[in-house]
Write a structure and sequence with these properties.
The chain is α+β, with helices and mostly antiparallel strands. The chain has a domain of 340 residues: 7 Propeller (Methylamine Dehydrogenase, Chain H), CATH 2.130.10. The protein is 23% helix and 25% strand. The strands form seven sheets. The protein has a four-stranded antiparallel sheet with strand order 1-28-27-26, with no helix packed on it. A four-stranded antiparallel sheet has the order 2-3-4-5, with no helix packed on it. The protein has a four-stranded antiparallel sheet with strand order 6-7-8-9, with no helix packed on it. Strand 7 and strand 8 form a beta hairpin. It starts with 89 loop residues before the first helix and ends with a helix. This is Dynein intermediate chain 3, ciliary-like isoform X3. It is found in: Cytoplasm, Cytoskeleton, Cilium axoneme. Belongs to the dynein intermediate chain family.
Length: 610
């Protein structure tokens, strides 16, 4: 039921009543024609005038004052019963009904209405008003260009603007939007900065519907999917809090600081459970903590994002991914660019980290599984978005181009498995349709001039909300082609993911073979070097007994080697000098020997020619 607020005004406040009456026409002004005025004008002859078959209209613009609306509720009690009859008492109601049914007026009214009611019933029985005439006819698929239009803009009402860090849609339809506001720049927040976050009505951007008042600015805010009145928030000081909108703006319960995160709680997620009260959170301190909002004095479970479960080596996380169909498994995107797949109920601490996917060179800011294909997931970090398969850990199966601006957030379309969205630091929103294009986005929207930091798509896939650095949340409506699944889209995406996974597996095996060959080659070279080294060592240690020599003996051996080498060198030089003739000798004999040798060589060459 729609709540309506009626504005009332007294008749006396409208002023004096207007009284109209008939009377004869009166002439107030009469201006006779003046021929002298014609001298001031020039007659146009001929005259060309374009005419239309429609009435000429004048367009006027006017700025009106902004009208702020407010929703008011009323207490309704069941009416129609006399004061002496309690509608909750069955005996009194039955007694009063029998009294009314005996009344002649009641009987005549029923008989009078009976004929018209009988006619309507017969008409409904004759004509099926719910019949589908074209049930088996396929709707024509219109290939229209992908577009999006801005529906509403929600601005931070405070004077000092803060970043819209997180957005959460109301679970029961696209009526409300919860937005968390926080200044993420370390130690740059002034004391006058507000810590409040807001719940907005989608149709009323002028004033928030409700204010959320935390003890520290909220970095994330999530609606409970089972209870639309409860919200879970992660604070900048590491605490986790929850609110019940029926109980006001203050948090119902907070986690103690000593049991909370040591860094800002960047992500909180509700867990699929029977009670609907369990959740878990992560932070850049490397911890993953599980909570129950019925008892928030301490976490129900704890885990560190490290293979050996050591706190000082844990990797800080910015985002989490949880799939309700796999209740014990989750994924975390870390500051180091890794994606860690975890199992909460592993048998040993070493098995809690199931796999690590490496590929990003900067922090991973967004992580989400494909709603239709849970084995494939999207990660957004640094200047690239990647699509992964759980079967391959070494590399992603698909990735976007390298952007010139940094990526901040991303998510899949809840309806179309081939569509995902990306926000960037230059204020643009990219819509990717991997069936239509793989190299470039299908649609690029310049949402605002400042960086976009948060993104969330409504369950129907039609509406998308983005939050910017200056606290502006923009609500966009996508064209029909971006949220309507094609006839063969699921099969096409399945084939695409399987093909890319198979290709990456082949490349990975080939890469391993190349690395193995390189290792074997390096091993052979090392063995050769070791053999040479061994022979060199044996030469050095010839004649020596086993065991290491003392340092003094090693020094003496080195000195003996130097003297021995020096002696050999001088012996060679002296022998060469002895062979050479001295200047006092007679060179006649030497010249005769050389002439004899040259003549013998000439005779040999002539004999060969003959």
């Amino acid at each position: 039921m729609e709540i309506v607020y009626v504005y009332t005004k007294k008749r006396s406040e409208f002023g004096r009543q207007c009284n109209f009456s008939d009377r004869a026409a009166e002439l107030h002004v009469d201006i006779p024609p003046d021929d002298n005025v014609l001298e001031d004008f020039i007659e146009r002859n001929p005259v060309d005038i374009g005419i239309q078959c429609v009435q000429e209209m004048s367009e006027h613009d006017a700025n009106t004052e902004r009208f702020e609306t407010n929703v008011r509720g009323i207490n309704h009690t069941e009416g129609g019963w006399p004061k002496d009859v309690n509608p909750n008492e069955l005996e009194q109601v039955t007694r009063y009904r029998k009294k009314v049914e005996k009344d002649e007026v009641y009987i005549s009214a029923v008989l009078q209405l009976g004929n018209s009611m009988e006619h309507c019933i017969k008409q409904n029985n004759a004509v099926d008003i719910y019949e589908e005439y074209f049930e088996n006819v396929d709707a024509e698929i219109i290939d229209e260009a992908a577009t999006a239009k801005t529906i509403n803009v929600f601005r931070d009402p405070n004077d000092i603007k803060r970043t819209a860090t997180h957005i959460s849609w109301y679970p029961d339809g696209p009526r409300k939007l919860a937005v968390a506001y926080c200044n993420l720049v370390f130690q740059s927040t002034s004391p006058e900065t507000s810590m409040e976050s807001y719940i907005w009505d989608v149709e009323n951007p002028n004033k928030p519907e409700m204010t959320i008042k935390p003890v520290s600015p909220l970095t994330c805010l999530e609606y409970n999917p089972k209870d639309a009145h409860i919200l879970l928030g992660g604070c900048y000081n590491g605490q986790i809090a929850y609110w019940d909108t029926r109980k006001g703006s203050q948090p119902v319960e907070l986690t103690p600081i000593e049991q909370s995160h040591r860094d800002p709680a960047y992500k909180t997620i509700w867990i699929q459970s029977k009670t609907g009260t369990e959740c878990f959170s992560t932070s850049t301190d490397g911890q993953v903590l599980w909570w129950d909002i019925r008892k928030m004095g301490e976490p129900t479970d704890k885990m560190y994002l490290d293979k050996k479960q050591e706190f000082h080596n844990a990797q800080g996380a910015y985002c989490l991914e949880y799939e309700p169909t796999m209740p014990t498994k989750f994924m975390a995107g870390t500051e180091q660019g890794n994606i860690i797949s975890c199992n909460r109920k592993a048998k040993t601490p070493l098995d809690k980290i199931a796999a690590v996917f490496t590929g990003h060179i900067g922090p991973v800011y967004a992580l989400q599984r494909n709603p239709q294909f849970t084995k494939n997931f999207l990660s957004v970090g640094d200047w690239c978005a990647r699509i992964w398969s759980e079967d391959i850990r070494e590399s992603s199966i698909m990735w976007t181009k390298q952007y010139s601006s940094y990526l901040t957030d991303g998510c899949w379309s809840p309806i179309r498995p081939a569509v995902f969205f990306i926000t960037k630091m230059d204020g643009t929103l990219d819509v990717w349709d991997i069936i239509f294009k793989q190299n470039n986005p299908t649609l690029t929207l310049q949402v605002c001039d400042c960086p976009l930091y948060s993104l969330r798509v409504q369950e129907s896939g039609k509406l998308i909300a983005t939050g910017s650095q200056d606290g502006t949340t923009t609500l966009l409506e996508l064209s029909e082609g971006l949220y309507t699944m094609g006839r063969n889209e699921k099969n096409l995406v399945t084939n695409m993911f399987e093909r890319e996974t198979r290709r990456e597996k082949i490349l990975d095996t080939r890469h391993k073979e190349i690395r193995l060959k390189e290792r074997t080659k390096e091993g052979k070279d090392e063995k050769k070097d070791d053999k040479k080294h061994e022979t060199h060592e044996t030469h050095k240690t010839e004649g020596e007994e086993g065991g290491e020599k003392p340092k003094e003996e090693v020094v003496e051996d080195e000195e003996n080697l130097y003297t021995k080498a020096e002696k050999e060198f001088f012996d060679i030089i002296s022998s060469e000098k002895k062979k050479q003739p001295t200047p006092n000798n007679d060179f006649s004999e030497v010249e005769k020997k050389e002439n004899d040798i040259n003549s013998s060589d000439a005779n040999d060459e002539s004999e060969k020619k003959d």
